[in-house]
Write a structure and sequence with these properties.
Homodimer. Its main location: other. Keywords: 2Fe-2S, FAD, Flavoprotein, Iron, Iron-sulfur, Metal-binding, Molybdenum, Oxidoreductase, Peroxisome. Its cofactor is FAD; [2Fe-2S] cluster; Mo-molybdopterin. Belongs to the xanthine dehydrogenase family. The protein is of the alpha+beta class and about 1250 residues long. Helices cover about 30% and strands about 20% of the residues. It has 35 helices and 42 strands. The strands form ten sheets. The chain has an eight-stranded mixed beta sheet with strand order 19-23-17-30-27-28-29-38, with helices on both faces. Strands 5-6-11-7-8 form a five-stranded antiparallel beta sheet. A five-stranded mixed beta sheet has the order 16-42-41-40-34, with helices on both faces. The longest helix has 26 residues. The chain is globular, with a radius of gyration of 31 Å.
Length: about 1250
Amino acid sequence: MHGLAVTTVEGIGSTKKRLHPVQERIAKAHGSQCGFCTPGIVMSMYTLLRNMPKPSMKDLEVAFQGNLCRCTGYRPIIEGYKTFTEDWELMQQNGQMTNGNGCPMGEECCKKKKQKDPEEVLFETSEFTPMDPSQEPIFPPELKESNALDLQTLYFKNENVIWFRPTHIKDLLELKHSHPDAKIIVGNTEVGVEVKFKHFFYPTLINPTSIPEMVDFEVTSEGVTLGASLTLQQMEINLRQLIRHEVKHKTRIFQAIVEMLHWFAGKQIRSVAAIGGNIMTGSPISDLNPIFMAAKIGLNLQSKSSKRTVKMDEHFFTGYRRNIVDPTEILVSINIPFTKPSQFFYAYKQARRRDDDIAIVNSAINVSFDDNQLIENIDLAFGGMAPTTVLALKTSKHLRGLPWNEETLEKAYGFLMEDLPLPPSAPGGMIQYRRALPLSFFFRSYLRITQDLYGAVVDRRDLSALQGFHYTVPKSSQYFQVVPETQQKTDTVGRPIPHLSAYKQAAGEAIYCDDIPYFENELYLAFVYSTKAHANVLSIDPSEALAMTGVAGFISAKDLKYNQVGPVMHDEEIFISKTVTSQGQFIGAIVAEDQTTAQRAARKVKVEYKELDPIIVTIEDAIKHKSFFSGVDRKVANGDVDEALRNAPHIIEGDCRIGYQEHFYLETQCTVAVPKKEDDEFEIYCSTQNPSEVTTEVARILGVHQNRIVTKVKRLGGGFGGKESRAAMIAVPAAVAASIYNRPVRIMLDRDEDMMISGGRHPFLFKYKVGFDDDGRLLGCDMDIYNNAGYSRDLSIAVMERALLHFENSYKIPNARAVGYVCKTNLPSNTAFRGFGGPQAMFVAETILREVAEYLMKDVVEVGRLNLYAENDVTPSRQTLTNCTLSRCWDECIQSSDYARRKRIIDEYNKENRWKKRGISVVPTKFGIAFTLPFLNQGGALVLIYRDGSVLISHGGTEMGQGLHTKMIQVASKALGIPISMIHIVETATDKVPNTSPTAASASSDLNGMAILDACNTINERLKVIKSNNPNGTWEEWINAAYFERISLSATGFYKTPGLGYSWETNSGNAFNYYTCGVSITEVEVDCLTGDHQVLRTDIVMDLGDSLNPAIDVGQIEGGFMQGYGLFVMEEMMYSPTGTIFTRGPGAYKIPGFGDIPSEFNVSLLKGASNPRAVYSSKAVGEPPLFLACSALFAIREAVKSARIDAGLEGPFKLDAPATAAKIRMGCQDQITAKLDVPKPGSFVPWNVTA
């Protein structure tokens, strides 16, 4: 940081003084939910504005490539921040609609037909503070006016590492000569990862960014010479400038580079990462190295005693991350040549996610033609096909001298397959897909170069193959019931007020668990994890760790009197005593003075194992070994299934599956356990959705009463179910360590740790037999349902129960039977996740519906509408549907989305295009609201009123971004008739409201809202006499009078949901209080050559009753949809056959980013559909919208079906979830995929398996 000025989110504005417009707009636009990601997003926007006061929407897209959010669905962030752009100002001038609804279509907006109320906006841009550049923090003049600090030679040293920053090439070469193993670092993007996550150690580091020769950009007669320390961002800026000024044919390599750089990491990484680092680290999936190798760039190397220039060709890399550069040599610069008029250059990349993702396969092609338009030279380079970037030498050799035609294309396919053999067990998996991609890339480049050479392609239907997908400016609209003008201004129920913590979150002032200041004498805890999936522990030796300075001790099973935990059954050990049944289980824990010491020491604990068989990873493994949790048989049966299937005119049988999903909450699991000075008291600060369970388990393990353990939760940086039961697994060891050492103990998991141990959404496998009539009406269904629980029960039985109660989704099946099997495997224990088994089960219903429609050759929308539930229909669990709005949601969504017209346009588009296909699908949801265990359906509250009239509320729910505290304050505001500014919630704490249910099941607003209403009504009843004596008094006067009249100004509230009590034995009673319904229609476009896709438009109509807060509810719908989009089409956990998790961080596991939201995203709350069974006629919203993202998968399926028809393939095909690019591409079978031989099952051990 020497010579640099750092501005943080706290430095640009605050809630105490003045928020910066960037902070204010994200808050007012409802773009901050849990808030953990908000400071990073704020600073990305702030940085953009400091560098570009009037950015375009394209600039906005690039700025956010490196940011992730798990809550919002991104739309409100973009809506708030687009008001800074030039595009927005132009739309304003043109009179186009740019309010909180965000639709830039103006009078052409499809929703204008609904005669939109002018107040139906989520935020008013007129309330935004104008951006005033003159008010920005002043950049230190001494840094701006002088580069003296940049020119200083620096040298830093601690007990482990020496760091140099030389300023002359001579000094650098001398250092490298003296320290040949020294790491040259610029952005630290590679070394930082190696040190933190791979635990590499580099004692000597050299930073060359102050050496002129290594940061120069020079244009020569042959091309350009770039210093190896030039950042990727600087390279892009310089190359773009050169492209603008040079003739087009000379800059084709440069154009390929800048196009690739758009997809290379995020802007934050490109701003610090260097060209030379990209080359020298030698990643086999580097995005630039294929370009450099195909271009045969020159590498200028220099040592103390010599200089040389080498070509970056097939000889440069000698093995995985190894090359020909001598340890004493430095890569000083690179030479990139101009291209010639007859030379063409293209580069391609395919990843799991377009923005900020590493490649699965990438390629570059460099072709030169002679005067007869024969191939003079051709170089093809590929990444992701070998341990290094490779050149297809045989292909190049055999194509020279050939004409550029289809015969040559066919020859190239054969030679490429020879050049790029990929064994079926190769690391990375996706073998057939990766084998197909080089051929697909070559075909795309063949068409593009054909167009370059001849001005046209042979078949116009092939034009769609020329380009991949590009950014489009997002559009959106939001519709909801506006409160009547007669509603009191202090009554905020139904109003779209911002999340009450949004301003604090945007200012970086919001406190999360690990933000709690360190306590005196605090220790840090680090776990020792099992490295085997199934083994006996023979010995544990912590001696080397205990000898380290700063280590306080080691705890393991022998230190605990009680070692069993679990949310339902205590079938997990805190610390393994004998047998590990999954990688990532706790062998023990180190406590030390700080995090770094604790984690280093934990890695030094030696554990010896004796491995055991079998290792059960997949559901199929569990079925084979009959590995099920016993005593948990669950079945739903209604009607005469066997008779219905015997008499059904048509029968189909099949299976489908849906994979694991990681919660990826932005704040990982965290606990601070603080022992008090007396009476065995503890305060536990924990990022948990279930503080009462933390208190219960800590008290039980420590052997004290629960009244001594107070668990406190200020807010969570996301939860999604992942902190319902698994938080206790972190909190209990921390409390045990704090008890043993009588010192505060803190732990916050690193991302890779969290992903390895905490479990996630259950994978499911469904096997079904369905009967139906000629019209497609469902008559009977028999189904076996399997879920992968992992090594313990956790909440897997309850997850299976909800799956059994949702497997029909929104369709009436009069005769249905479903049996659930909970599989015990050697994987981390899976747990609650938004939807809790419901989305997985509803997926099978949609799969069945499409198979029925295709069997009968009918329109799936027609079949879906035919089978849709109606009022007073009965579910397989025999619950009668009342106030059922499914048909209203369906019909309104069909109409408002203009479905019929768009479907005709899509059909025409698919006829005209061979390599891009579009699809559209309609998917409903019907999600039951209540815990399936009746006793959990209770809520408590404590309302305290102080003499100044201010109100303090405590209730049993935790705030994790869903706006629960905001809604609860709105409820109290309406009940008491006072402004929300007078009401406050400090935290959720077990010493205020005991025995709380977890904040889960989408029921927290219902339960806690009714409890708060109960407490407020109690107080209102007490105040009646005061108000009657002074009817014109103010709230403050009434409260003051009540105090002097000795009227209690505090009250507890309680609520239990009536009418619940489903019996699994008799299949009777109501499992749910009511259902939240909705419908989604999604249109996508698929790239048949790569499997990539783009969501063009999504329309959602959702029945949320009378919304407590439309802004929060719309945000929950959009956020839930995008999380579901990840589940159904993007997020994929990869396991080895021996139980190792390969995807343990954001580098390998991809959640949706800013660029993945629908290009048009319209959300409408159904009007005139109040709900008598919840607080103020509202409905629950947290989980129900997630499944609607399944519409994206089935739209993809429609597109794939069109591609298969073009290839002459008709009939049923499977597309399981997630529908990743690999599955999409291999589903779009064609002449390329037909060339790939399929390895015989059983002839190899796959690198990865599907759990």
